From TrEMBL:
SUPFAM superfamilies: Dimeric alpha+beta barrel, Winged helix' DNA-binding domain. Residues 1-62 form the HTH asnC-type domain. CDD domains: HTH_ARSR. One of its GO terms (molecular function) is sequence-specific DNA binding. One of its GO terms (biological process) is regulation of DNA-templated transcription. Pfam families: AsnC_trans_reg, HTH_24. GO terms for cellular component: cytosol. This is Leucine-responsive regulatory protein. InterPro entries: ArsR-like_HTH, AsnC-type_HTH_dom, Dimeric_a/b-barrel, Tscrpt_reg_AsnC-like, Tscrpt_reg_AsnC/Lrp_C, Tscrpt_reg_HTH_AsnC-type_CS, WH-like_DNA-bd_sf, WH_DNA-bd_sf. PANTHER family: HTH-TYPE TRANSCRIPTIONAL REGULATOR LRPC, LEUCINE-RESPONSIVE REGULATORY PROTEIN. The keyword DNA-binding applies. Keywords: DNA-binding, Transcription, Transcription regulation. The lineage of its organism: Bacteria, Pseudomonadati, Pseudomonadota, Alphaproteobacteria, Hyphomicrobiales.
Length: 152
């Protein structure tokens, strides 16, 4: 991946709806080579898809929660079980493996505190093998971006 490919990616991260003509102008390429580079980025897996950034409050999910989980055991079977179950839970938007005292951090969205309680009791607890759950509720967002920093 060269600097022009990175320019294309950053431009699309800022505005994924721009036309190829607009993209080409933004990155100083003619449309044909720009489209060829874009297709190569998609085919290589560098660009994994396009999505829309939706306001969760407007959608009806005003509560964002970071949930840190520590497993009781770290054997292959328990880890695989936990990770496969988490992947099926719609409220979990992200699940990251961590270093340090906790094993995982989940970003979760729910409609209410009651919905969060239901999420923990009926989605997380039944997974089993969980030693501890630590929860932080988001009450404000200072910065949120999907645009990678420029390299070089």
């Amino acid at each position: 991946m060269d600097s022009k490919d990175r320019q294309i990616i950053r431009a699309l991260q800022k505005d994924g709806r721009m036309t190829n003509q607009e993209l080409a102008e933004t990155v100083n390429l003619s449309p044909s080579p720009c489209l060829r580079r874009l297709r190569n980025l998609e085919n290589s897996g560098a660009i994994r898809g396009f999505s829309v950034d939706v306001d969760p409050k407007t959608y009806g999910l005003p509560i964002t929660v970071f949930v840190r989980i520590r497993l009781e055991r770290h054997n292959e079977e328990d880890v695989r079980h936990f990770e496969s179950r988490v992947q099926t839970i719609d409220e979990v938007l992200e699940c990251h493996v961590l270093t340090g005292a906790m094993d995982y951090q989940l970003r979760v969205v729910v409609a209410s505190l009651d919905a969060y309680e239901d999420f923990i009791r009926n989605r997380i607890h039944p997974i089993g093998g969980i030693a501890s759950i630590d929860t932080s509720f988001v009450y404000g967002t200072v910065k949120k971006t999907a645009v990678f920093p420029a390299l070089g």
